[in-house]
Specification:
single chain; 110 residues; mainly beta; 4-stranded antiparallel sheet; 8 strands; globular
């Protein structure tokens, strides 16, 4: 640890997602069931929000981080890990926006 992921997410009028595989990387064991993360939205071009969740379940109806255009914001969360070792990172953006997403994994539970 720590594990650091950066995504640039772009999607016109819809949502987009990434599913990084976390297990067996940088000290996160295959037995990890959840992870502690810091998430940051950097330089968004539109209003939006980020939702993090286990990659093998339906998207929850709540967000982990809300942001406005031009507003760099961060938050922390505990996220369940899916059976295949991934978490889903979903960005919902208004209009034809984009956002750089930084996910720092700083701990885990197994």
């Amino acid at each position: 640890l720590p594990v650091h992921y950066i995504f640039v997410m772009r999607r016109p009028n819809d949502a987009c997602s990434q599913e990084p595989d976390l297990r067996n990387r940088c000290g996160i064991p295959a037995t990890a069931r959840s992870v502690s993360v810091n998430i940051t939205a950097v330089s968004p071009t539109a209003l939006g929000f980020l939702t993090l969740y286990a990659g093998d379940v339906s998207t929850p109806s709540t967000s982990n981080l809300n942001f406005a255009a031009g507003q760099t914001r961060g938050n922390n969360a505990v996220v369940m890990v899916s059976g295949d070792g991934s978490i889903a990172v979903r960005a919902q953006l208004a209009g034809e926006g984009s956002v750089e997403v930084v996910v720092d994994v700083n701990g885990y539970w197994d």
